[in-house]
Amino acid sequence: MYSAILSVLSSTLVSRAAMYLSLFYGALTVGRLIFAPIIDKVGIFRCLIIFSCTGAVLYTAGIALWRSGMLILGISGLAFSIIYPLLVMLIGKFFDSSCAGSATGLILSIGTFFDIGFNAFFGSLTQNVGYAKAMTVMPIAAILVAVLLITLKASVKKSKEMFVVIQSYYNPKHNVERAIRMWQGGCNFNVRSTQRYYERVMSYMR
What we know:
There is one protein chain. 84% of the residues lie in helices and 0% in strands. Helix 6 packs across helix 7. It has 206 residues and is mostly helical. The protein is built from eleven helices and no strands. It is elongated.
């Protein structure tokens, strides 16, 4: 994101370039302060989708307008400000608390490698086609993130719906223990292999 702003600003007055870049960084900081209370009311997943889509729209508009869109690029920092913290929080929602720390570290490490790879790709692309054409990759990446989050949200909802259907067939009496063990071990679960998971879930329910 920052490289896109810097490239557009390379042909702009230094004083104005610093102002727009400061606006973007300032928006990142302010956004994390003012939007934090909204997360609890709206929800992590919904906030991620709203802010990623908003950021993608603003960022795409800013790049498309080029010099005239610098203010929009700066303001887009508000939308992007809480995406990273929300992603970290979301990891904890998908993993048990006993392994959430390890999962977060692993996922963030993998993300860092992808970030390094993307920077290398973007640098090579810039050398081959120039900044102007290479910049189109940035809004495409922002839109792709928004689409992936929407897809993930839909897949989670579909998984829950499928679980309800499976429960209605294999667990018609709605036995809680059986439902928990089926979630971990499938329809033909093994009591021994699902015992630890069952005990952990029950400890949360008490």
